[in-house]
Amino acid sequence: MHLDPTPHLVTTARPADLEHRPTRLPDVYDDKQAYEEALAARVARLSRLQRDLYADNRYALLVVFQAMDAAGKDGAIRHVFSGVNPQGIQVFSFKQPSSEELDHDFLWRTACRLPERGRIGVFNRSYYEEVLVVRVHPEFLGAQRLPERPESLDTLWHQRYTSIRDHEAHLHRNGTRVVKFYLHLSPEEQRDRFLARLDEPDKNWKFSGGDLEERTHWPAYRRAYADAIDATSTAECPWYVIPADDKKNARLMIAETLVRTLESLDLRYPESDPEAIDGYRRALKGD
Fold first, then answer.
1. What is the CA 106 to chain-centroid distance, rounded?
2. What is the pTM of this model?
3. What 3-state class would DSSP assign to 177?
4. Which of 4, 189, 215, 234 is most buried per CB count within 10 Å?
């Protein structure tokens, strides 16, 4: 099965353009068995590459997931990383900031959760919330007590785009590779998934009245996402807009992208001293 993430990559020549990018593509798998085999192969490869990443101990991988509610972030994380050694991966979800977090700059709380060298870090939502949710709901800015808030909110968002680009460029220079996924869901598919949650008692807890309120802001969120993605997708720290109406297609494309990202690194095992190894071997055999 051939998968090519390139059409989903956001560049200057291929902007986010969420109004026209598809949320669903033809299936890249023939049937459920083919999907499971293709995903298993990529999960196994990802697991091996994570072991190489750990042994090399020069790089880290930060994977950022952003999306509207019910787009499948949790499921993608669960399926794509299902075979990776739990010691080699760190997953963090970022919701409403605490009072302590509000007393710092907007990048602080996620900076405290960055992956160590040799590990994969996964952010389920991230510092991008500060140019997404806060842009759609600027009243949240009041709790941040900004000392020099620009009169124009557009200026503030562009300042934050600059901070994010600088932050990610700094991470890249220091060995952390950053890959960002926007799971592109249609409002119709979100409605169907919300209804499914309401129809299944053991999933009712996933739904709240606030979900309905946020749906009314769909156009504003789409503009906020498109602007943020276009402003912060770089060659070193790219964004991928993944059609998410089909969860299986999305998971396969995410897994393929991560495998290619790790394969692009010059991962190698630390050099060993052959004479020392022979000495250790003789010592063990002589026990």
1. 18
2. 0.94
3. strand
4. 189
